[in-house]
Structures are given as C-alpha cells and as structure tokens.
Specification:
Keywords: Coiled coil. The protein is mainly alpha-helical. The chain contains three helices and no strands.
Length: 147
C-alpha cells in the first residue's frame, strides 16, 4: 500500500508543470541582492573600522601630548614657586638696603624749620661742634648729602 501511494505521488508530480527553474531564478536573484547588500555592509564596516583605528591613533597621540603638557606644567609650577621665593628674598634684600640707606639721613627734632637752609652742611658742622664738644678735638666733621 505504501508503494502504491508513493508511485501515485510520483505520477502526480510528473504531471504537474515544473516550476523549479523560475523558483531557482528568483532565489538566485534574491541571493544576488542579499550578497550585494552584504558587500555594501562589509565595505561600510571596513570604513568604520578604519575610522575607529584612526581615532584610536589620534587619541593615543593626544593622550601623550596631554601627559607631556602635564609634566611640563608641574615643572613650570615648581620653577614658578622657586622664582616666587627668589622674588620675596630680593624684595626683602631691597627693603633692607633701602632701610640702610635711610640710616645716613639725619633728622633733628626741635630745630626750627628752615634754619641753615642756605647751607645746611656748614650749619650742622658748626652746631655739632657746639652740641658735642668731644667732636671738636677731632677737627672738622665730614658730612655729605644723602639725597
């Protein structure tokens, strides 16, 4: 019985018109379309991979430059701190020198303003001998103007 059925199906199949070439042609066309799309996707993927590699390379370069700049900034900061310390020392030294230069100045309190204004050095030399008799034994007192 099974054999009869199989032979009947074979006869029926042989009576049907063959649609296989049309199906294969359509399947082949679909396959070609799919393959074309896959090729396009592959080429796009390759382009994306190249761009990604380029971006990675650029990122590595930028990272190296950033690291170099950070090291240089640290050195500059240390140098600036050293320079700041040196400036402070120099300011202190300048202030000390200015203070020492002021020590040569003489301010006489209780002396009338304008006294001896025509020749202040001669005026002071004369008065110092009167005020400090011990200086008279030495002779003349040397004086110079500070300013």
């Amino acid at each position: 019985m099974l054999e009869e059925r199989a032979s009947q199906q074979e006869k029926a199949a042989s009576k049907r018109p063959m649609k296989r070439p049309a199906l294969t042609k359509r399947a082949t066309m679909k396959k070609v379309k799919i393959q074309t799309k896959l090729d396009a996707y592959n080429s796009r993927l390759e382009a994306v991979e190249k761009d990604t590699a380029s971006l990675r390379s650029a990122n590595a370069t930028i990272t190296k430059q950033t690291d170099t700049l950070q090291v240089e900034a640290r050195r500059n900061k240390a140098s600036m701190n050293d320079n700041t310390e040196e400036i402070i020392k120099l300011k202190e030294r300048m202030a000390l020198m200015e203070d020492r230069a002021r020590r040569s100045n003489l301010r006489l309190v209780f002396l009338e303003e304008g006294a001896g204004s025509d020749n202040p050095i001669a005026f002071l030399q004369r008065l110092l001998l009167v005020w400090l008799p011990a200086l008279a034994a030495r002779g003349t007192i040397e004086m110079e103007m500070a300013h």
